[in-house]
Amino acid sequence: MCGGLCRITGKEIYHYKNHPIKWVRLTGVVIAIDDFNGRRVYSLDDSSGVCIECSCALPVTPDPLPSHSIVPVRSIEPVNGNRRDAQKSEPPPDPNLPLESIDIGTVVKVKGGISMFWGQKRIEIKRVQILGSTDEEVRCWDEVGVFLRDVVGRAWILSEEEQRKCRRRWEREQRKALKEKNAEKGVKRMVEMEKMKGQESAKRSTALDSAASRVVRRLVEMERAEQEEKQKEKEKEREREREERMKRRHAYTEKEIERRNEKKHSSKSSKEKLKEKEKERTGNTNASKINIPTVAMSRIAGKYDALGL
Predict the structure, then answer these.
(1) Nearest-CA neighbor of 90 among 56, 117, 122?
(2) Is 20 inside any structural domain?
(3) How many structural domains compose the chain?
(4) In terms of residue numbers, what domain contains 190?
(5) Are the beta carbons of 22 and 113 closer than 8 angstroms?
(6) For 236, phi and psi rounded to 5 degrees?
(7) Which stretches does the entry tag as region Disordered (predicted)?
(8) CA neighbor of 115 nearest in space, from 39, 24, 16, 17
(9) 13 has a pLDDT exceeding 90
(10) Rounded CA gap, 41 and 61, in Å?
(11) Inside any domain, residue 219
């Protein structure tokens, strides 16, 4: 039944000769019934040489025992890498399934999907029909044969036009899924924003009591900052005035030094001039002093010559 099927990873869809197969229909005799862990499993012999398990969820029935007498039993977990399949949420039982009417030896026609349990394929029952006669069973066999010969037995090949249609359809579905995903994200974002707004409003309401004190504190800080700025400006003005006074003082001292130097030079030059004049005058007087005795001596010598001395 399932030997030629190829499973798509992550999906309960199989392929047989390129045909996608999601549902399977079986006709056979029930040879065993097992109930465990809230499910019922029918072993079905469809004359293919392998007994196939078909399972469904059991309806929940009230337990007559008191709650204190119930001993919890740990369920057996699969060990061959099928824990994920075993932990899937079980679908609710279909009330239209005639589970109570099916017994060992009953011929049934089962329709369902393929699932994995402990590395084995089995059928998840969706519909069950009890066949009351052999004619109905033979009719089902004929339908299966015709379906296998005319549909499944031929390879399913898509033309280029069908491929383009399928590709466009797939792109539309992808765009639609993306839009839905973006819409969900937008809704979540709006919900988060509303929560944030609610939190902010709550914080704002709690902060209103201390808002006045914060404002007053801010005003005091601003006044203090203004006073500090004014004080700094005054200090800067005083520093500028001090520097200007020092500059003026330095300029005055430099001018005074220059003036005194010039005065010294002028006094020195005047003194030197006076000294030169004095020297000249003294020089003339010395010459006259030297010349006067000579004249006198010459006169005396003349007198002595006249006297014959």
Answers:
(1) 56
(2) yes
(3) 2
(4) 158-272
(5) yes
(6) -65, -40
(7) 179-210, 224-309
(8) 24
(9) no
(10) 18
(11) yes
